[in-house]
Design brief:
Layout (H helix, E strand, L loop, with lengths): L2 E5 L30 H6 L1 H7 L3 E4 L3 E2 L10 E5 L8 H17 L3 E6 L3 E3 L15 E2 L4 H6 L3 E4 L4 H17 L4 E4 L7 H14 L4 E4 L8 H12 E2 L2 E2 L3 E3 L1 H11 L6 H11 L7 E4 L9 H5 L2 H11 L5 E5 L31 H19 L7 E7 L3 E8 L2 E8 L3 E2 L5 E2 L6 E2 L4 E2 L2 E6 L1
Parallel strand pairs: 1-2, 1-15, 2-5, 5-9, 9-10, 10-13, 13-14, 14-15
Antiparallel strand pairs: 3-4, 6-8, 7-8, 11-12, 16-17, 17-18, 18-23, 19-22, 20-21
C-alpha cells in the first residue's frame, strides 16, 4: 500500500523561468497557472519527503497545448513548458526527478491519458509501423469534451497496439513505477486486461491506478462501475482504483445533519472492494473536484474527512496542498476545477496552514507506525447525528475511533488521543474532530 501525493505541474512550483509560456501560447489557459515545471518538482522533493509521502503521481508531462496537460499532442515528447526545448535534455531532467525520488524511497507514477488526445495530435511522430484510428465520442462525457479532444478507436488493432506500446515505452526507458490511468472508464476492459499484462511483463510490481468515474453518476452507479472494472477474466486488471463512491458518500454525510452510522455503512461498503491483490485509493480532493474546505467551509469537518481517509484499508492520495487545507478559487467559472490554484510553501504559511500540516504529517506517521491504521476489521459501536464511535481490530490490537461533529461530553471511557496525545477522562469535553485511541 502507498501514501500518495498528486502534483498538477503547472500549479505547483516554477523552478525554471526559461520554459515559461505566455497566456496566448496556450489553446486553453487557466488563470491560476504559475508555469510550474519539473525543475520545480526537483527543488521541492525534500518538502514532499519530509511530509512522509512514499509515492508521487505526476500530472501529465507530455506535449500539450493546455495548462492542465490532458490534451496530449505527442506521447513520446515531454512538454517544453515543463522542461526544455531539447528533447534529450528534457528526458535527462525527468530521469533526475525519478532518481531523486527513489533515493528517498518514494515511488513515482505518471499520468497517462489513453482514452483521448489533442485534436492537434502529431500523427507524423508515431515511431512504429502503425496507423492508429480515431472515433466519434462514445459517452456523454466525451461529447462534452469533443471540441478539445480526439478519441482513440481501440477496436482497431493498430490503435490498441499503439497505445499499449506508449505504456511500454515509458516503463522500459525510464525507471518509473507505474501509471495513473486517466478516464479508464472510456476504454473497454479487454483493452486494460491486455495493457495490464504487457506492463506486468516489463515490471512485475507495476502500479496501475485507474480512474473509473462517471462524474454525472450517483454513488451507487460509481460503486458498481468500480466493482465491474476491478477484475476481468478472474484477474485484477488494475492494482488500485480511486474510490469515488466513498469520496462522494463521506462528503455528503459529513455535511448533513443525519445519523453518522451512515459513515460506518459507507466504510463497510467500500471495504468490500479491497482485495489482497488490488486495493482502493482513498482521497478527499483531486484536480477535477473542488477543495474540500471550499465545499464544507468547516475546518473540523475537513479534519474528520482526512482522518477517515487514513484509517481505510487501502492506499491514500493527497492532492497537492491538501496537507495544509489549501483553498481554491470559489469564484472560478467551473467549481469542479476551482481547486487548481498555486501551491503555498512553508515560508508563506499562515498559523492555520502550519497547524493543518502538522495534523496531516501526524496522520501519515500514525499510518506508518501502526499497522492497524491501514489493516483490520471495522466494528460499529455507537452513533448519533453528532458522533460516531467505531473500532478496528488487527492482530490482537484495537483502535477506537471517535468522530465528533458537535462538542459533547465524554460519556464513553477514558482514552488517550494518538493525534495530540491528550488524555480524555469521563465527562471531559470533546470538541469536533476525529480521535484515535489504541490498546
Amino acid at each position: 500500500m502507498f501514501n500518495g501525493y498528486h502534483i498538477l505541474l503547472k500549479f505547483f512550483y516554477n523552478g525554471y523561468r526559461g520554459n515559461d509560456y505566455n497566456e496566448n501560447d496556450y489553446l486553453h489557459h487557466e488563470k491560476h497557472n504559475i508555469e510550474g515545471d519539473l525543475q520545480g518538482v526537483l527543488e521541492k522533493i525534500d518538502y514532499i519527503a519530509d511530509l512522509g509521502i512514499d509515492l508521487v503521481y505526476l500530472g501529465p508531462i507530455f506535449d500539450s497545448e493546455t495548462t492542465h496537460g490532458y490534451d496530449t499532442k505527442d506521447y513520446f515528447k515531454i512538454s517544453e513548458n515543463i522542461a526544455y526545448k531539447d528533447p534529450e535534455k528534457s528526458k535527462n531532467l525527468l530521469n533526475k526527478v525519478i532518481s531523486e525520488f527513489h533515493k528517498r524511497d518514494i515511488k513515482i507514477i505518471l499520468d497517462l491519458v489513453l482514452n483521448h488526445a489533442s485534436k492537434n495530435y502529431n500523427f507524423e511522430n508515431i515511431p512504429f509501423d502503425l496507423k492508429p484510428k480515431t472515433e466519434s465520442p462514445q459517452s456523454p462525457q466525451e461529447i462534452r469534451w469533443q471540441n478539445l479532444f480526439l478519441f482513440w478507436n481501440v477496436e482497431d488493432p493498430d490503435t490498441k497496439e499503439f497505445l499499449i506500446r506508449v505504456g511500454e515505452y515509458w516503463l522500459k526507458n525510464f525507471d518509473i513505477d507505474g501509471y495513473r490511468l486517466d478516464h479508464a472508464i472510456g476504454l473497454p476492459k479487454d483493452f486494460w486486461f491486455d495493457f495490464s499484462k504487457r506492463m506486468k511483463d516489463i515490471k512485475k510490481n507495476v502500479i496501475l491506478l485507474g480512474e473509473i468515474w462517471n462524474d454525472q453518476g450517483n454513488d451507487e452507479e460509481n460503486y458498481n462501475l468500480i466493482k465491474d472494472f476491478l477484475f476481468y477474466k478472474d484477474e485484477n486488471v488494475f492494482t488500485s482504483l480511486f474510490d469515488f463512491s466513498f469520496y462522494s458518500k463521506i462528503t455528503n454525510i459529513i455535511n448533513k445533519n443525519i445519523n453518522l452510522e451512515n459513515l460506518f455503512l459507507a466504510i463497510e461498503q467500500s471495504e468490500k472492494l479491497n482485495f489482497d491483490e488490488a486495493k482502493m485509493t482513498y482521497f478527499i480532493e483531486n484536480h477535477d473536484l473542488p477543495r474540500f474546505i471550499d465545499y464544507t467551509d468547516n475546518l473540523d469537518y475537513f479534519k474528520i474527512a482526512m482522518g477517515l481517509v487514513f484509517i481505510m484499508n487501502g492506499n491514500t492520495m493527497l492532492e497537492y496542498g491538501n496537507e495544509i487545507c489549501l483553498r481554491g478559487d470559489k469564484n472560478y467559472q467551473n467549481f469542479n476545477e476551482s481547486g487548481r490554484v498555486p501551491m503555498i510553501f512553508p515560508e508563506n504559511w499562515s498559523c492555520k496552514e502550519k497547524e493543518i500540516y502538522g495534523f496531516t504529517k501526524k496522520l501519515l506517521n500514525l499510518r506508518k507506525d501502526y499497522g492497524i491504521m491501514s489493516q483490520g476489521n471495522f466494528k460499529y459501536i455507537d452513533s448519533s447525528n453528532d458522533y460516531l464511535i467505531m473500532r478496528k481490530n488487527y492482530k490482537r490490537e484495537y483502535l477506537d475511533i471517535y468522530i465528533v461533529k458537535k462538542t459533547i461530553n465524554n460519556n464513553f471511557k477514558k482514552f488517550k488521543n494518538l493525534i495530540d496525545e491528550k488524555i480524555y477522562k469521563i465527562n471531559d469535553t470533546i470538541t469536533p474532530g476525529i480521535y484515535f485511541s489504541i490498546r
